[in-house]
């Protein structure tokens, strides 16, 4: 279900949060579905359970999951979550655009990259 990239500079818990957010927003994890237990996921990923607990805490804080005492964690999806995640992506895109323009890339190069003439959209099998 989740594969961690140890070459990624982000902390492991952030990678876990991002992967679960994506799975929830894509509908792979359905609303009210039970999440894997902290221990079982820690064993599966061969990482410290505290890392999983930190990721789950962040997911709960941002509204992606909810906890039922004594029963575990469950997916809590609503349409607001997608809007929030889109805003986060737009913010990152704005930062990258600003950086690219400062480095001398043209607006046309950026547009080509985003609309599918570049590599990222082609790898996803989509054109925007």
Show the helix and strand layout.
Layout: H1 12-25, H2 38-45, H3 49-61, E1 65-68, E2 72-75, H4 79-102, H5 107-115, H6 119-124
Antiparallel strand pairs: 1-2
Helix pairs in contact: 1-3, 2-3
Number of helices: 6
% residues in beta strands:
5-15%
Terminus-to-terminus distance: 27 Å
Radius of gyration: 17 Å
Strand order of the largest sheet: 1-2
Proportion of residues in helical segments: 55-70%
Mass-distribution shape? elongated
Order of helices and strands: HHHEEHHH
Query: Major β-sheet, in short?
Result: 2 strands, antiparallel
Q: Work out the number of β strands.
A: 2
General description of the model:
By secondary structure, the chain is mostly helical. The chain is built from six helices and two strands; from the N terminus they run H-H-H-E-E-H-H-H. 58% of the residues lie in helices and 6% in strands. Strands 1-2 form a two-stranded antiparallel ribbon. Helix 2 (38-45) crosses helix 3. It is elongated. The relative contact order is 0.10.
Which structural traits does this protein have?
two-stranded antiparallel sheet; 128 residues; single chain; mainly alpha
């Amino acid at each position: 279900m989740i594969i961690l990239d140890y070459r990624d500079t982000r902390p492991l818990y952030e990678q876990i949060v991002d992967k679960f957010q994506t799975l929830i927003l894509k509908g792979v994890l359905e609303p009210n579905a039970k999440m894997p237990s902290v221990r079982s996921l820690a064993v599966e990923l061969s990482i410290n359970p505290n890392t999983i607990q930190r990721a789950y805490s962040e997911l709960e804080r941002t509204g992606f999951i909810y906890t039922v005492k004594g029963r575990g964690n469950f997916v809590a999806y609503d349409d607001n979550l997608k809007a929030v995640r889109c805003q986060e992506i737009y913010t990152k895109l704005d930062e990258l655009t600003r950086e690219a323009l400062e480095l001398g890339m043209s607006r046309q190069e950026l547009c080509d990259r985003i609309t599918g003439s570049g590599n990222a959209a082609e790898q996803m099998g989509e054109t925007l």
